[in-house]
Design a protein that fits this description.
single chain, about 220 residues, alpha+beta, ECO RV Endonuclease, Chain A, three-stranded mixed β-sheet, DNA-binding
DNA sequence: GAATGATCATGC
DNA sequence: GCATGATCATTC
């Protein structure tokens, strides 16, 4: 998919664009973008996110930066049920597993990505066909002090385990708001990490994700 | 039913 | 393989 518009020049312009597609169905959005609508997402898991990106004027790419670097805004689509509750966790970024000296919360990719997020909730219930799913109203969010503290605490705990060679002990149950889970094409994918004795080991790549409870709180606070 | 771990598509 | 976009599907 190619961007349909130049990047927005201001947050207001970005919000206007986002609000202008709220309420529209995936069928209407696919038409606007000139792309085919998948009948399901089994083989097109990132389709919705990329569709919203091109409609709002984000440059496609896999750069480890925000979607709108000039505005300092990250774009996230999030599937919700009929009650506005998230149906999935939210991927944040890759978890660095090696050469981690010098990485602190203040300069981490997680903090950078989550410093300002434009959430685009979309209907995601599996009993709604992709063609009928609609986009909800956007939410521009910046973490509160409390939220930032929780994120920092989780990140520190997890990143400490990585530094101490305990990556193999990390599972998705660790962390109140942030968790680490595998992030790879399949189980054969490997990357370097720190082992229990400080040696270099091979392990499955991991990513940081936000729990549904945390994103639910974000969405609720803007609709109450 | 929800959560964890696994997986799919794409561009370099 | 890394990093983006995430959802799937097995396990609990």
């Amino acid at each position: 998919m190619q961007p349909l518009l130049p990047p927005p020049k201001s947050i207001d312009e970005l919000l206007e664009r986002a609000e202008s597609i709220a309420g529209l169905s995936f069928t209407e959005l696919a038409d606007m973008a000139g792309v085919e609508l998948p009948s399901n997402f089994k083989h097109h898991k990132g389709w919705t996110g990329q569709l919203i990106e091109v409609l709002l004027g984000s440059y496609a790419g896999s750069k480890p930066q925000q979607d709108f670097p000039d505005l300092g805004v990250e774009l996230k689509t999030i599937p919700i049920d009929a009650y506005g509750k998230p149906l999935e966790t939210t991927y944040v970024c890759y978890a660095p597993l090696i050469n981690v000296a010098g990485i602190e919360w203040s300069n981490s990719n997680v903090k950078n990505k989550l410093s300002c997020v434009l959430w685009m909730p979309v209907e995601g219930s599996r009993d709604i066909l992709p063609q009928d799913r609609r986009v909800a109203m956007p939410v521009l969010w910046q973490p509160s002090e409390t939220q930032n503290a929780v994120l920092e605490q989780d990140w520190t705990e997890l990143q400490d385990m990585i530094c101490l060679g305990q990556v193999e002990k990390i599972n998705a149950s660790i962390g109140q708001a942030l968790q680490i889970r595998p992030k790879a094409a399949d189980g054969s994918s490997l990357t370097e990490a720190i082992g229990a004795n400080g040696e270099v080991i091979q392990t499955r790549p991991r990513g940081y994700y936000l729990r549904k409870e945390f994103t639910h709180e974000i969405l609720k606070s803007y609709f109450s």
